[in-house]
Design goal:
Number of domains: 2
Protein name: TetR family transcriptional regulator
CATH architecture of the largest domain: Orthogonal Bundle
GO molecular function, one term: DNA-binding transcription factor activity
CATH superfamily of the largest domain: Tetracycline Repressor, domain 2
Order of helices and strands: HHHHHHHHHH
Number of helices: 10
CATH topology of the largest domain: Tetracycline Repressor, domain 2
Keywords: DNA-binding, Transcription, Transcription regulation
Oligomer: single chain
Pfam family, one: TetR_N
Number of strands: 0
Organism: Actinomadura litoris
């Protein structure tokens, strides 16, 4: 993978980079991993040469998209860690993650872009943030005591996966299943879980 330049980009170069990331995410969401680099550049309103100056290979582009998605979630999570109501913070984080996935599902890129510069660190930070959100919610008695950060990370994609089984379902159907999932995290009426949580993801 090509290292990301350490010096700040010029304003026009930064705009081009952001346009390319948005266009690429849209193209991959619509056409899958075989999305054309030429179509991505065209959608971003730049030439292929500009694309390759920012992202010399397709793998570099995919890694940048994954890092951008993880970075956005981490930034939101860091902000929510400061919210006094831990249950509200955890629910908002899960809602944000599901909403972004519903708008543009590029989750299949995560395995492809896993080796990109900074991706592993960003993913580790995401898991750390979720763990702290969960710990705070447990301490405040908002969620059951036997729920772990790993449990919640694994549940993050569940609302969208369930809703996807209905191809003609309402766009916000995932909200129903997120509410069901979050109610299942609450301590009221909780029964012992039949299997221990995974140690690592």
């Amino acid at each position: 993978m090509t290292e990301t330049p350490s010096r700040p980009l010029r304003a026009d170069a930064a705009r081009n980079r952001e346009a390319l990331l948005a266009a690429a995410a849209d193209e991959f969401a619509e056409h899958g991993i075989d999305a054309s680099v030429a179509d991505i550049a065209r959608r971003a309103g730049v030439g292929k040469g500009t694309l390759f100056r920012h992202f010399p290979t397709k793998d570099d582009l995919i890694s940048a998209i994954v890092l951008d998605r993880l970075g956005g979630l981490n930034e939101a999570g860091e902000r929510l860690l400061r919210r006094p109501d831990a249950g509200d913070a955890l629910l908002e984080f899960l809602t944000l993650a599901a909403h972004r996935r519903q708008q543009r599902d590029i989750s299949f890129l995560h395995n492809v872009g896993e080796t990109g510069t900074g991706v592993a660190a960003a993913r580790t930070r995401l898991f750390e943030i979720v763990q702290v959100l969960v710990d705070r919610a447990r301490e405040q008695g908002v969620i059951r005591a036997d729920v772990t950060g790993a449990d919640v990370v694994l549940l993050m994609c569940a609302p969208n996966h369930v809703a996807e089984y209905l191809p003609d379902g309402a766009p916000d159907l995932w909200r129903r299943y997120l509410a069901i999932i979050f109610d299942g995290l609450r301590p009221d009426g909780a029964h012992p879980l039949p299997h221990p949580a995974p140690d690592v993801l």
